[in-house]
Design brief:
The protein has about 140 residues and is mainly alpha-helical. It has five helices and no strands. Helix 1 (about 1-20) runs antiparallel to helix 2. The protein is flat, with a radius of gyration of 18 Å. The protein starts with a helix and ends in a 13-residue tail after the last helix.
Length: about 140
């Protein structure tokens, strides 16, 4: 039953996400427009939710203890990332988020920071330099 409830919630969210993406406005010109990426994400989410609704796990096990706390911490980190992305800039916010997520998955500090830095710089290069999507680098200095 819990899989079906999760599937219905995800289906409703993906429909809402895809629908509201059509009203996005952006200050840059992109041939596809700002709605393309969110609408592309809503389709697999909706398909996944249908799988949960029609083919649920017969005996789902709920996580408890430390794994549940790690899941809550990961969701909190993603919310933090969304809230502080513009204030901290893409590179710093991404380094912090990826470092915390890597630590939650059991990586050591050095590996977490190195992989987070590499990921942040690589993604910045892809989005800003290759795709031409302007990202805020450092607040107040480079935008």
């Amino acid at each position: 039953m819990s899989d079906r409830i999760a599937g219905i919630v995800i289906l409703c969210l993906s429909i809402w996400y895809g629908y509201t993406a059509g009203s996005y406005q952006a200050g840059f010109t992109d041939p596809l427009g700002p709605a393309a990426f969110p609408q592309m994400l809503s389709v697999p989410a909706a398909l996944f939710s249908l799988f949960l609704i029609f083919r649920p796990d017969p005996k789902p096990d709920w996580v408890t203890g430390t794994p549940a706390l790690r899941q809550v911490a990961a969701v909190a980190m993603l919310i933090f990332y969304a809230l502080f992305l513009e204030e901290l800039g893409f590179i710093l916010a991404t380094i912090v988020a990826v470092t915390v997520l890597a630590r939650l998955l059991g990586a050591g500090w050095l590996k977490s920071v190195v992989s987070a830095s590499a990921t942040s710089l690589l993604l910045f290069g892809v989005f800003d330099l290759v795709l031409g999507l302007p990202l805020r680098v450092v607040p107040g200095i480079l935008s």
